[in-house]
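Summary for the steering committee. The consortium agreed at its last meeting that each partner would contribute one worked example illustrating the joint modelling workflow. Our contribution is presented below. We chose a case with several input lines so that the handling of multiple components could be demonstrated. No manual editing was applied between input and output; the record is shown as generated.
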Amino acid sequence: MTVSDRDVMQLFDGELDAERARAIRAAGVDDPSVDARLLALAQLSAFTRAWARTRSPAGPTRAARRSLERSHARTRRIGVVAIALSLGVAVIAPGRPGETASYGGAAPLAPATTAAPAVAVENVDFGAHQGTIFSVRGADTDTTVVWLSDDTDGALTAAL
Amino acid sequence: MKRRALLWAALATAWPAAAFAGDKPPAPAPAPAPPFAELFVLHATHGTPEVDPRLRDLEELTKPPFSTYERYRLIDQVRLPLVRGEPKTRRLPNGRVFRAELLSMHGPDVVRLLASINQPGAADFLPLLEVKAKMDQRFIVAGQRHKSGILVLVITVRRPAA
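What follows is the complete predicted structure of the assembly.
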């Protein structure tokens, strides 16, 4: 079964009936790109939420800023990240130092200025694996998630 | 009259000495118990929806990308005391080893924590993860494949109840 991007988006948005959702999830067992695409959507969703906050008239100077970076190399690297995740999201994948690009075409955002993060990832080395840092809304705050795949090939990078 | 004055003077002098004679020097305050990392190891799989009742508070599991898995089982739970210079380890169900170590305290409620996931006899899976975390605020390390699913490690730094 081929799972289209539309299928994945509808699954992410909860727009599929239970049977169709089950079929796509079952297909995802054999197709790791399904998980990767869902993860990418989660990151994109969180990014837009964080970006919107920085543009909010309620207080752009007080809003925490996020730096969303993406790179393409798979070499081992230590990425130093200071992330204010209590209000938003950050994404980091392994890559060559200095080879970064803004995500989704948006201008890179300035570092966090105010709110202290509940959990801040200060330093990470994903080794030879694909790694991503983002946040998921928990009961009261955003929860920092470090997602590290066993796949060394770039399904996640391709999805991004 | 003079005798009575002398008596009062003697009492006034003796009372403070008597009052404090029985006091012992204050005991030193007990050192605060070290914080610990509470580690939950979850196994996420596809199939008939079923979430371990002990995980009901983990709202994150209902959100993408975690919600792409329907079944969550709590397969291990441990408290790792966080002491500087004394890393603690826990073997994971997939044979890898989770390691946690306290780097420093920043006030009573914030810790810097070093974690890693090592693969005995092979390259480390997650060589380094350094976080600054508030007490009782969890973070999640997920994605390792395990038995048709993935492992989800939920780590919360806590302080023992007084």
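Chain B has one helix and nine strands. Chain B has one domain: 36-158.
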